[in-house]
Design brief:
The protein is of the alpha+beta class and about 500 residues long. It is about 40% helix and about 25% strand. The strands form two sheets. Strands 3, 4, 5, 6, 11, 12, 13, 14, 15 and 16 form a ten-stranded mixed beta sheet that branches. Strands 1, 2, 7, 8, 9, 10, 17 and 18 form an eight-stranded mixed beta sheet that branches. The longest helix has 19 residues. The protein is globular.
Length: about 500
């Protein structure tokens, strides 16, 4: 994945026609690029920031069917998500895992009620089940959740779901799509459409890094921009009403000692009717999430004080150790692209998590809504519609059984980097597992362009320990400048930009 080479090809092939141009480099867009390319269509994807910069790197890190949606009676969504969960765990085993969850119960009625619901959850997963739900005694619950408040505890319910590294999966989707022939460019923005007889035939692009502009011809365009869906819809039709109602969810990351053990905890009902999780992830624990309607979509949303207080209040009701703001190692915020519906009363918690697909008069295909777990099905639906709109030759989707990434190849390449320079095997930070060789690999083969790309998404240090990421910025910027042939002014600008960003992930 060489960005300069890809842009050069765009420059010299502007008269060539793409079968499908995809705008948006999050989970759905990258999934669509892989789907289209693996069917043999000539595919281009552009992303105005880095791959997974937005919502797709800010999830609760769960590959799940949605226990809450079962409670709401949305059996169709749960069944589809559980099926997709199984496919994802099978196709990306190096980035996913089975995670045991425990629901603490404080009465026999609660224990029975949640056990029945989770048994149904098991049944809906069918042959792709990850493990059987089991009732736990009070003692068993305390042994598996050592930090749980024992007062009034009746027992617990054990069930299984999936877990993953979201932005790393996006990177591997990009690498796999390119292996099948797709062209993908980050930091490349769609700035306009050109039409013939009312139909989009060309897309105007701008390299965000240099300001260079390109125009590419295409048979069809897929809008996979998530919470920024409306901006692209209105680029096509200035009078188009907003489709998306953004909802904000925050996560707090704390030290593992607050929740020792390997099991996650799921609180089934908070004050606002949401579930709340405490999930082990990369040696820390992720606490979340919230569901707060916001007026506008921002690329770097900020946590609200009431959201922080909400999570701390509810988690501290269940744990033996009090967690304070000072214990939070990182706070990250994601926006859900929920599709507007009448009668929701302004509450995004009531909006459907199903995905929506629509075709504009111009032929622009928009896919939005949904959830990370169902990204593959969303991509398949989008590409199927693109085939119809562009009248492309029919070819069947193969992503249900398509392996994602090349973990062995990546590990071998990193080992070669270390064999050529032993210093590259050193850790970036004593408390993080990442090495300098991984950074070199990300710059050379995974299109990392900024310090943020490396510390937030190719590694996850910003999300795990924002103070450590902030401290690493000068070293990483200098290292990156050597790899990309950048000057001192670039280093200084990168350090300033990343330091300001990292500060937003800190509460103290």
């Amino acid at each position: 994945m060489d960005r300069d080479d890809l842009l050069s090809r765009l420059q010299h092939t502007q008269n060539d026609r793409w079968d499908i141009v995809i705008i948006g480099g999050g989970a759905t867009g990258l999934g669509a690029a892989l789907d289209a390319a693996s069917r043999g269509y000539k595919t281009l994807l552009v992303e105005q920031y880095d791959f997974a910069k937005g919502t797709s790197s800010r999830s609760t890190k769960l590959v799940h069917g949605g226990v809450r949606y079962l409670q709401q009676g949305n059996i169709k969504l749960v069944r589809e998500a559980l099926r997709e969960r199984g496919y994802l765990l099978r196709n990306a085993p190096h980035l996913t895992s089975v995670q045991a969850f425990i629901v603490p119960a404080f009465s026999w009625w609660e224990k029975t009620y949640y056990a029945v619901g989770l048994k149904i959850y098991d049944l809906l997963s069918g042959k792709l089940s990850l493990g059987k739900t089991k009732l736990l005694s009070k003692q068993e619950t305390k042994e598996r959740l050592p930090a749980i408040q024992a007062k009034d505890l009746s027992g617990g319910i054990l069930y299984y779901d999936g877990q993953f590294d979201d932005s790393r999966l996006c990177t591997d989707l990009a690498v796999t799509a390119m292996r099948y022939g797709a062209s993908l460019v980050n930091y490349c923005k769609a700035i306009g459409f050109e039409k013939e007889n009312g139909k989009i035939t060309r897309v105007q692009l701008e390299d965000v890094m240099t300001g260079s502009r390109y125009t590419v011809s295409t048979r069809v365009v897929i809008n996979a921009t998530g919470v920024f869906t409306d901006s692209l819809l209105q680029l096509d039709d200035a009078l188009r009403e907003n489709l998306v109602a953004p909802s904000q969810g925050i996560h707090l990351v704390v030290d593992k000692h607050f929740f020792p053990g390997n099991d996650a905890m799921m609180i089934p009902k908070t004050d606002d009717g949401r579930v709340l999780f405490a999930v082990p992830w990369h040696g820390e624990v992720v606490l979340g999430t919230t569901d707060t309607p916001v007026e506008t979509a921002e690329i770097e949303p900020r946590p609200l004080e009431e959201e922080i207080a909400f999570i701390l209040k509810h988690i501290n009701q269940y744990g033996t150790q009090t967690i304070t703001r000072g214990d939070v190692k990182s706070v990250f915020v994601g926006l859900r692209p929920l599709v507007k519906a009448k009668g929701s009363g302004g509450s995004t918690a009531l909006l459907s998590r199903d995905h929506t697909l629509m075709i504009a008069a111009s032929g622009l295909i928009t896919v939005t809504g949904g959830k990370w777990t169902t990204y593959r099905k969303m991509a398949e639906d989008a590409v199927n519609n693109a085939i119809f709109v562009a009248r492309l030759a029919q070819r069947e989707c193969i992503t249900r059984d398509l392996k994602i990434g090349d973990p062995d190849g990546r590990e071998q390449a990193i080992a070669r980097i270390i064999s050529e320079d032993a210093g590259m095997g050193a850790k970036l930070h004593p408390e993080q597992p990442y090495t300098w060789a991984e950074l070199r690999y990300a710059i050379r083969f995974e299109m990392a362009q900024t310090v943020e790309d490396l510390l937030a998404r190719r590694t996850r240090i910003l999300f795990l320990d924002a103070a450590a990421a902030k401290a690493l910025a000068p070293q990483v910027a200098a290292f990156m400048a050597g790899e990309l042939n950048k000057e001192e002014t670039w280093i200084q600008a990168q350090v300033i930009q990343f330091t300001e960003l990292a500060q937003q992930y800190l509460l103290v």
